[in-house]
């Protein structure tokens, strides 16, 4: 007797299934409320501030040990960090509950019939909620790419279900968003849990702010060392651009340089002018948290106003936050205070940033 082999739980979705996620030509005015996620982002995400284009030196080992705890990456003072070590079991469980709520939203609301910006915000938030949830479940871990779900790497694991279709984080990016949105700015909305990737924003995406947040993310990434740098006259760029090339940069060097120029500040514009090529070799896969994905056994008290408090944090975290404080003092010294908003960025149809993301 022949027995049919079991269908693999991680079978890729078929084209017919994916076709259901194509945006409608006649969108409605429905909106989704992300206030819960917005509040969470404001409480668990810390910004390291804009890049100074100066690689951080290797930190000293923790006091009393030769082992190096905490972050050692030269990019550790760029992007944003998630406070995974402070999350208890109830908070982590609430991430799973919220991810399932977002999945169920697609059973109550016709996602494809929403406005393009509303759909884009939905897919970015669902992707990022799922990533935060799974990394929080697996923490402490040094690199999110090491996380496996039923033997499948996190980015490839199809643990997200929308309208009965099982999706992975990568499916959401490449088979839905990158397929139906032509502006490469969308890549900066997706958080991968790594220092070397785009930042996790400190607010939830929605139809009204998605263009603004994507432009902010693009400016932060393009004008950072983890996005662009120079080596022996060659422009080195993030490995994330190589991954996105089939969707947005078919003529890689030409198309990517045009894209980078769109968001480049003065320093990055000079970098583009003084270099050749575009080599996608920059990467940093360490987790974007405050502790470097490990629990350090040595702690120290926090001081506030010069007075020691009873609240204690790992020494390596204290050292990182001290480096952050020194960096912000330098930003103030340079007169770079406040949030820089790029207001003259044009979308492909010629309209200003703030309009619909194509």
Outline the structure in words:
By secondary structure, this protein is of the alpha+beta class. The protein has one domain. Helices cover 37% and strands 13% of the residues. The chain has ten helices and eleven strands. The strands form five sheets. It has a three-stranded mixed beta sheet with strand order 7-8-9. Helix 3 runs antiparallel to helix 4 (116-138). The longest helix is centred in the middle third of the chain and has 23 residues, at 116-138. Residues 1-8 and 340-351 have low confidence and may be disordered.
SS content category? alpha+beta
Beta-strand percent range: 5-15%
Largest sheet: 3 strands, mixed
* Count, helices: 10
Bulk shape: globular
- Give the helix level as a range of percent: 25-40%
Poorly predicted ranges (pLDDT <50, ≥5 residues)? 1-8, 340-351
Task: Write down the oligomeric state.
Answer: single chain
String of helices and strands? HHEEHHEEEEHHEEHHHEEEH
Strand order of the largest sheet: 7-8-9
Distance between the termini: 54 Å
Report the average pLDDT across residues.
91
